[in-house]
Amino acid sequence: MKKFHFISGLPRSGSTMLSAILRQNPRFHASVSSPVGAFADTILSQVSAGSEFAPQVDIPKRRKLVQALFEAYYSDIDRPVIFDTNRHWSAKLPALLDLYPDSKMIACVRNVAWVMDSIERLYRANPFEQTRLFSSPAERSTVYTRVEALGQRNRLVGLGWSSLKEAFYSEEGKSLLVIDYDILSQRPAEVMPLVYQFLGEEPFAHDFNNLEFDTPEYDDGLGVKGLHKVRKEVSFQARRTVLPPDLFDQYSRLSFWHNTSASSANVIMIRQDGDAPMDGATPMPGPTAPPEL
What we know:
- With 293 residues, this protein is α/β, with parallel strands linked by helices.
- It has a single domain, classed as P-loop containing nucleotide triphosphate hydrolases (Rossmann fold).
- It has 12 helices and 7 strands.
- It has a 7-stranded parallel sheet with strand order 2-3-1-4-5-6-7, sandwiched between helices.
- The two termini are 34 Å apart.
- Residues 276-293 have low confidence and may be disordered.
């Protein structure tokens, strides 16, 4: 029987890079976002209260239906440990732990201003593509409207942020590991043993200079070329932001995972001046200049 874990968190924060690292282990399967979460939501909407089928499909049967989705979708993967990726999984942590009590969730995070900066750079690199990230010309019109749209609670960045915040402060937080992209990109050889310890897996010798991961068909479908392309080498690349200073300052204030005092989640990050006590966290000293994917 396969063992399931989950990858969630913010976009442009290293989840694809983490998947590229993990899949080097022959025991692990990890990829881009799967449709399993959407399938599960669709099925549950058809059998929940208000549906004509609700009386015929009780809670135990609903649970079996959702679990069957995972088993069926990954039936052709000949690896014993599956990492399913979905940014909304953070808001589903109680249900996932009910299905798979021994499962863990890894959430990749990054200063939200640099998340917005990274997406904006991709947008500017594809000037003749009307990406599906924005639903109207009004949203696409300026960097301010683009960032505002992405930050809404039901959109790419806002959904990942609010879902993770729910998990971070939940009763199930101990099953969550938050990894800041700054430290994963700079010191992967120190971070990955901690990841294996959290998962309860035997350590594996990864090659951080030889990653392979690219999904051009997936990215082209979103109209964002290069969204999930990972560089061959895990490395740190400092740069200047393309965001106006007021936007950068506004979104730099949203890194709630630096305050662990009310959370049971596990955190691997570079501790910054003024951070709350690191209960349940693993701080690592080091440089804090922002890297790029």
